[in-house]
Amino acid sequence: MEVFDFYRKDRWPHVFCPGCGNGTVMNCFYRAFNELGWNLDNTVFVSGIGCSSRIPLYINADALHTTHGRAVAFASGLKLARPELDIVVFTGDGDLGAIGGNHFINGCRRNIDMDVICINNNIYGMTGGQASITTPHDFQSTTTPYGNREYPFDLAEIAVAAGANYVARWTTRHVHELTKSIKIALEKKGFNLIEVVSQCPTNFGRRNKMGDASIMLEWFKENSVRREKARSAAVDHVDLNLAGQVTIGEFVNRDRECYQERIGVEKHGEKH
Amino acid sequence: MSLTPGEYFLQGNEACVEAALVSGLNFFAGYPITPSTEIAEGLARRLPEVGGAFLQMEDEIACVSAIIGASWGGVKSMTATSGPGLSLMQEAIGYAAMSETPMVIANVMRGGPSTGQPTRASQGDVMATKWGSHGDYQVIAFAPASVQEMFDLTIKAFNYAEKYRVPTFVLSDAEIGHMRGLLNVPSNIKIVNRKEKGVRRTDEAYDVPDDLVPPFPTFGKGNKAAVTGMTHGPDSRIEPEDPKIHQELVSRLNDKITKNRRDINKWDLLCPDSKHMIISYGSASFGAREVAAEDDRIGLLRLKTIWPLPEEPIREAASKAEHILVCEMNMGQLYHDIKRVALEAGCKKIELLPKIGGEPPTPGEVRHKLREMGAI
Ligand SMILES: Cc1ncc(C[n+]2csc(CCOP(=O)(O)OP(=O)(O)O)c2C)c(N)n1
Ligand code: SF4
Ligand SMILES: [Mg+2]
Fold first, then answer.
1. Which residues, listed in sequence order, are joined to residue B103 by a DSSP beta bridge?
2. Pick from B55, B73, B227: CB nearest A82
3. Topology, domain A25-38+48-271
4. Where are the domains of chain A?
5. N or C, which terminus of chain A has less Cβ within 10 Å?
6. CB–CB of B191/B159 below 8 Å?
7. CB neighbour list of residue A25: distance below 8 Å, 6 or more residues apart
8. pLDDT of residue A265
């Protein structure tokens, strides 16, 4: 499948800023999907609200662009109604972890079959750079003019604790690892989370004097620590902090029975 | 299997469950709340028996979100709740209206505001049902007044949700939901299914059909549907800044309901030419029904559809009546809208019997009010 069979050509140009990490994530997803030879007619892309949540509307497949934070809940109903469809959720740190936090942890717990790709740019990009639940301590945003007084959530660790089947975190600098993880998630049953720490040069990088997209990517490369190493260095609780660390890698890869298997819903899509 | 034709003795909420199954319900998402819980419990047991799925969600926001997702999968879906849950559902109800998603919400009303009276009846959610989400939109709402009507109007709710691609409510209350009564299941029940688009890409714009309801592009059938709550054109492209596209879309979402009132509005009339008319709905009409049955000077217009408001029979009654008395189990909600229509039709005296606290107005209370008005 060529790139422009995967995307809706007629929806170009997209809304993303130059240098935004969303394009990298889309590209990695396309590669993974294509390498597996998956069929766009059998996949539904679901999202909430935010820059990252616009992605499904650019893909040449059924898309459900929903309300802020609720994508996992919409996807849960859709999956139970049509178990034969594959569901991919695109979401952001604010969408999944803040307003949608309850749906997120319960989605992990239920382990309904879906692949959730959370683009964590540590900020509310779409609304112009307010602090999110992953904005690092002391960092600047429009709502933390004196520096962020709170500490960030670790979305990947929460997903592990809440029961997701597969959890990985990469950055937009780790395109090969990210693509590989997306493939693993697509092929796995149950609730899978891939968190991608990504650059929002417009509303996060600029305000925190991190430089342009290329410098932010370099920063990701220099400051990423593999989870195994992070554990031994006792910094595994950090997502991204001023001390400069992003914990990356696979957080869990297990095969808990997924929800549909437990309740034995038949593939009854044809009937309707 | 759904109920076979015959006579049954059921609770109101159970009748709602059985009607949903007869209508072809395939997915229910719920969160427990009195006095609606029997609907969730009933469907948790019954849906798997007919090959459907039940999901208990983490909150009511998730319930409506999940049933919208299921509906886009092409199945009939439903949730049930009461006041506090309805408040949480509002954002997703607006999304369903904007995305034209067929779905049914059974709201078994209790006394509010807030946690209020969990076990007592009220009609306090009538305005919240119509106006609760932000923006200009329409819904359809039916108000059953018996176990039989809980069954009949739940089926209607599914049929109209499918026909008009709109969130549709069965607005009962603790009284109707918990009463037990005879249910007659007829053999010739009419079931309506949404018009499907078939395999055709949705980014090719549709032509707006005469009934203003575009066909439904079910997921997983090659339609490449792009569904969004943002302002979008007929080709589903999001156009949040184009005034004309917004005007056309939102006008159509409203017109498809208000211009089809004739089809959607249902009501019952006792003594239609009476000079003294009572207008009521749901369990608030119990007392009025008794009074009107005993006294042929008193007429009763009982609304079965409350949204969109059945203006035609109100106008008709108001053009003949000297007095109109509106009975509601709230402090006056539909009253103001009924009054607007009745005044336009030339009736001058339109009064309200408001009753809150958890019990429907008694025949004695209705008579007392009519006497006060000089009607009897
Ligand atoms: C209920 C609700 N509250 C607030 C908003 C405004 N809003 C739109 S996008 C957004 C933040 C999105 O942040 P994130 O999920 O991190 O996505 P990003 O834009 O960073 O990719 C907010 C708060 C909304 N649309 N709906
Ligand atoms: S605001 Fe940030 S996240 Fe949004 S498109 Fe621009 S760079 Fe990307
Ligand atoms: Mg973000």
1. B167
2. B73
3. Rossmann fold (3.40.50)
4. 25-38+48-271
5. N
6. yes
7. A52, A55, A117, A119, A172, A178, A196, A198
8. 56
Separation between Cα atoms, residue B75 and residue B193, nearest integer Å: 10
Domain B1-264 class in CATH: alpha beta
Q: Which two tokens stand for residue A119?
A: 């683009």
Residues with CB under 5 A from ligand 3 (ion): A 92-93, 121, 125
Is A269 in contact with B74 (Cβ distance < 8 A)? yes
What does the alpha-carbon distance between residue B12 and residue B7 come to, in Å, rounded to a whole number? 14
Q: How far is CA A238 from CA A175, A246, A247, B168, in A?
A: 21, 7, 7, 47
Please state, as a whole number, how many other Cβ atoms lie within 10 Å of the Cβ of residue B193: 16
Handedness of CA B330, B331, B333, B335 (dihedral sign): positive
Asked if residue A121 has its Cβ within 6 Å of ligand 2, the reply is yes
A60: its two tokens: 């040449």
- Burial of A161 per CB tally in 10 Å (0-12, 13-18, 19+): middle
Residue B219 and residue A62: Cβ atoms within 8 Å? yes
B233 interfacial to chain A (CB closer than 8 Å): no
Round to the nearest angstrom and report the end-to-end CA distance of chain A: 30
Q: Express each pLDDT in B163-204 by its tens digit.
A: 999 999 999 999 999 999 999 999 999 999 999 876 666 566
Check residues A259 and A185 and name the one with the higher pLDDT.
A185
**Predicted pLDDT at A242:** 53
Round to whole Å and give the CA distance between B90 and B111. Answer: 18
A248-271 burial string, b = 16+ CB within 10 Å, else e? bbbbbeeeeebbbeeeebeebbee
pLDDT of B206 > 80? The answer is no
Please state the domain extents for chain B: 1-264, 268-373
CATH topology of domain B268-373: Rossmann fold (3.40.50)
pLDDT value of residue A33: 98
Ligand 1 binding pocket (C-beta < 6 A) is: A 49-52, 68, 92-95, 119, 121, 123-127, 132
With 0.95 as the threshold, say if the pTM is over it: yes
Identity at A83, one-letter amino acid code: P
Of A211, A209, A164, the closest CA to residue A184 belongs to A164
pLDDT in tens, B321-376: 999 999 999 999 999 999 999 999 999 999 999 999 999 999 999 999 999 999 88
